[in-house]
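Cross-posting from the modeling subforum.

Setting up a comparison between two proteins and wanted a second pair of eyes on the formatting. Protein 1 (sequence, then structure tokens):
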Amino acid sequence: MSITREEILQIATLARLRLTDSESEDLSQDLSQILEYVDTLASLQVPEGERFELGPPEAPERKAGQMAPDAMAHPPTDSAPDFRDGFFVVPSPPSLGGADDSGGSP
């Protein structure tokens, strides 16, 4: 599958991008290569009974429909200078008069 220069220009118009002729040509080639690669991946045949690994090999098996909590290795309170009531506390920007606000706002 390939993407034409005209399709690139239509996408650029929708995304409100201005592309030079060279940029649109390069983008067309790049996106066409990506789509060819995706087609190649989609056509791969995994032998019957073999598992197609997508995660780390040590990932635990989960039963269908089972959602295990994703525990954080380090909670935000360990790395945030100020964390209160589940929020990161940051100083107000000077444009809002926060230069003298040392307490921040949650």
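Protein 2 (same layout):
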Amino acid sequence: MTKRIGSLFALTALLVSCGEAQAPEDTPREWPTVGAINAVADDDPLAEGQWRFQYDTWGVEILDGSWPPASFMLDLMESEPEVFGDQYARFGFVYDAGDDLPVGLKRGIDDDTRVTTTCALCHVATLPNGVWLGAPNTKLDFAGFRLAVDERWVASGGQSMVGELDREKLLRLGPGRTGAESGEFAQVVAVDFPPYFHLGSRARLNYLGTGRDLRSEAYLSIFSSGAGYPNPEEARVPFPSEERAGAFVAFLGQLESPPAPDQDAGLVARGAEVFQAADCGACHHLEENHLNPVVTVPTHEDAVELLPGVDPDFARGAILTSPLHRVLVDGDPEADPDEGDGGDPGVAIFLFFILDKGLVVVPTDGYRTADLRGVWATAPYLHNGSVPTLEALLTPAAERPVRWERDGFEIDTTLRENNNGGHEWGTDLPDADKAALIAYLLSL
């Protein structure tokens, strides 16, 4: 089963009640302590949701072709400790002191002889003050890990679990990124692991801003892992009950950004003034992220970037970042017309799920504005992770680093999936104002 993520879901949904069979609720009723700075206590009402975030595989481990058996995965740590030791630390996994497998890669909840990933895989990170739930694991080279495991599995006599197209796409990702496209889509659409901060107060979720509430987004995430896929009649793994999924949603909704490292107070104060003077708040509403708009990605020739309210034809503004993401739902202008419009063929399956579950999902014409709280912990920047630092983001796109290393992996921005253009706001500020603005942003 190829995983899919939220940027596929720019489709209109109706509110429809569902009545399909639910997954059995045979999971632990005592929730073990999770080792993280912001973890809730075992007796907290949110403890079940926290456990599901970290450990619930939703039963999708029974699906074929994902990972070798759990015994093989554990043996790798012993047979090649220099590569796979310390719970695969070399690949950026977060150590789980309460288990023999790392955060985000767990034995199946229904079949513990198999392993699969959980939601925590990409959204738990080690920060300067310790492990933080909801932070993007920017160090995790999941693509490299999957290829390395498959190589050892094949060498042991197993059949490869990575198809040729998937292999080609995995080789182009590197740390901190995954593919937003379905397995059938020929082009890799690189996406940075997003932070899970302040999700409960957002009115627009995922990069395209198509999810209008957290329940809708979380349900799509579970579905994208394989639970309930492709529909209730054909699904090998039923979709979980409202109670089970609801605990997961409740926990996600209360995660907040970590406290920022100390910055020069004078620079921060000056940076707040620059933020206001440069009208950054027209898009980034710091304490009211439900107001963050979906900024249009214009497709006409000679398009320019605009702040909201400047042009009545683009009331929510216009931005030119990461154009490949819109291709998934809008179609690809570079596609061969004899092979369709170039859109992702996996989208239709999600539409049926959206209708069946009564999810609140709407089409958009652009990208949701990022919540800047905790931005210090989320580098590199833009949806595809193509800009290494805030300093580079405040540099004109033509002068941004063309090739740079992300934990040993080269990001080549001449490749389509690594386009680093757009978001030219603030690039013409004086150097002193840029430094102050960056200090302010890093204090959020």
